[in-house]
Amino acid sequence: MLNFLKIMSSRNMIRTVFIVGSLLILPHGQDAVAQDLDLAEIFRCVPSEKVDEALCGEARDLIIDNCTICHAFVPIVLQQFDEQGWDGLFDRHADRSPQLSVTQVADMKKYLAENFNSSLDPPELPQALLDLWTSY
To answer: pLDDT band for position 31 (50/70/90)?
Structure first.
């Protein structure tokens, strides 16, 4: 087991723990729904002048690898903030991810502002996940 853990990168390990954890907290009988989630679809990428596909992928990975350590991804993708709203959210969370560089945080904000704002509908999520989250 120890060799297995050494082989896994921290990113893959975090994702594995998150996915397994998500399955464990779902109400009984609904774990099959979580297994069908496509995080690339949920964390969509709408390329724009500010955000290209490469930045989308990098920012999406940063969010999944860092933000979901403390909470599920549901509130992240359901928010519909403009740039100022995402700035405020990140300001409130600044002390929680000291390992992130200023550039990484800026990329995450750009990605979220372009892909999760009031001009776009939130992604569709299974009811079981929606039931786990109320609001901030």
So the answer is: very low
